[in-house]
Every structure is written in C-alpha cells, then in structure tokens.
Amino acid sequence: MSESASLLQILGTIRKELTRGITIGIENFHEHYYLRNMEYYCETDCFNAPTISISPGKWGLGAFRSSITNGTRGLLTYELQSESFTLTDRLFLIIGWHVPLIGDNHYFLHVAQVESPDFPAKESERQRVYEFLSHKKTRAGKKTIFCYVSPEVVDDQKQQVNEKEDGKADHASRSCLTVCASMATTSLANLRVEIHPQKFPTDEQNVEGTIHIAGPPQRFSFTKLMEERFANAEIKVNDALEKFLKIKTESTVKDTRKGI
Question: Which domain of life is it from (predicted)?
C-alpha cells in the first residue's frame, strides 16, 4: 500500500470512530523543505499520532480526541530542515488549537525561532510555548492565517548558484516559504495546513513573518548562588596567597643579599 493510500485509510478510520476532537492535515508543496523532529503537547488523548516526518510533495495527518469535560487543546511542532541549504537558525512550524465542548474553535500558526535548547524535546517546554502563543488565537472560520518567511541561509550544499550573476537572489528565493492554515468550526474540527514555496498569492493584510520566542526565565537557585560565591572566594584567596608568596620570596632574596 502506498503512503498516500495508507493516510487516506487512516483518515477514513478517524472519521468513523472519532466524534469530537481535531484532525490536523499538513501538505508540503515546498520542494526544498522537510518537516522533521515532530513533537506535540496535548492535554487529552492522541487518537492518531501525527506523521513523524513530511518530505517535499508529501502530506501528513494527526488526530486528537476531546475529553468529556474539557474538549481538546494542544500544540504540534515540526523543525524545518533542508538538504539543499543550511539555515542560520533553527526554525519550527508551530500549530496550536483549542476545540472546547461549548463555544468557538480557535487555532494559531507560527514559524518561530525558539531560544531554548530543550524545545521541542522537553514536554514542559512545549507546554510553556503553547501557553505563550495561545493568548493570541484566531477564531475558526473567521479567516485563513498566512505566514511568509524568508530565512537566512549559511551555505548551499547541493546546488552551485555562484555560476549565476543573480545567484544570491536565486539562493534566497529557494529558502522562502509561505505557510497557510484554516480550521473548521465543527465539533470534529479539521485544521488544514499548507507549505508553499516563495510568496503565496494572497490579499490578506496581516501576513506574519518569523517570530522569536525567548527561553524560560532563570529560576533562583540558592545552591548555585553559594557555588558561585565559593568559587569567587577561592579565586580571591588564591590571588592573595600568590601575592604573599611573591612578597615573601622577594624578602628572602633581599635578606640573603645583605648577608653576603
């Protein structure tokens, strides 16, 4: 069975067995980007684990079930990688949702740099990023979200563009991408995400670029504070001891010369 046929079969099973929750479908139309290192955070059951990696020209699927009391809310993230060039910074596609039992569905979509070495591997970091981004959600059915990104590139691994006079421009255009998302208003909501090369034609005024998410705040540690103070005290004692030995040595030399 082909990959597409398998995903269609999974989608059919989800529609039959899942009555409340969310399905997330991602189509990758960009020829240079791979979606890898999938991680998610969800406060309810994962009905069908999202596709681990989505190659150019492929699509992926995931589904999460609503709980009896709280509906479902969470975050799905992929790292954007390329085998044609190297990005200067790590970039993540971050998709978030909230499908309550009563009320409107909401979602968000971002391409982000996250200044935390523990993201997305650590669940607490995924939760922190979700809580940070969930304050600015879009109501389902209201509009499509667009993100246009032109990331900086370190080098070119596969294609030699230096032979062209406009090589830099060609290089930059291949790293550009537009991500768009829309969400249904039903109790079994479908969140559809597409990744397109360069700038996707749109009349939307509010098109977001890359966002930066700071790392977690440093917590006060009494142990660490004492270790730093002891280390500084040790340095000062060693400096003082070195000066004392130097003075003593010079004094001994002077006394020896006087005796001679």
Answer: Eukaryota
In whole angstroms, give the CA distance from residue 8 to residue 48: 13
Check whether residue 67 and residue 134 sit in a common domain.
Answer: yes
Distance CA 22, CA 63 (A): 6
CATH number for the domain spanning 167: value is 2.60.270.20
Q: Is 106 in the same domain as 62?
A: yes
Percent of the chain residues topping a pLDDT of 70:
76
Summarize the confidence of residues 164-187 as an average pLDDT: 76
Q: What's the domain count of the chain?
A: 2
Q: Are residues 130 and 252 in the same domain?
A: no
pLDDT of 55-110, one tens digit each?
999 999 999 998 888 889 999 999 999 999 999 999 999 999 999 988 999 999 99
Residue 136 DSSP code: S
Residues with Cβ within 8 Å of 87's Cβ and at least 6 positions away in sequence, in order, are: 80, 81, 151, 152, 153, 154, 175
**pLDDT at residue 143, as a whole number:** 84
Same domain, 159 and 237: no
Q: What is the dihedral of CA 184, 179, 110, 213, to 10 degrees?
A: 170
Q: How many beta carbons lie within 10 A of that of residue 127, not counting itself?
A: 15
Same domain, 125 and 178: yes
- As a whole number, the mean pLDDT across the chain is 83
d(CA 224, CA 230) in angstroms, rounded, equals 10
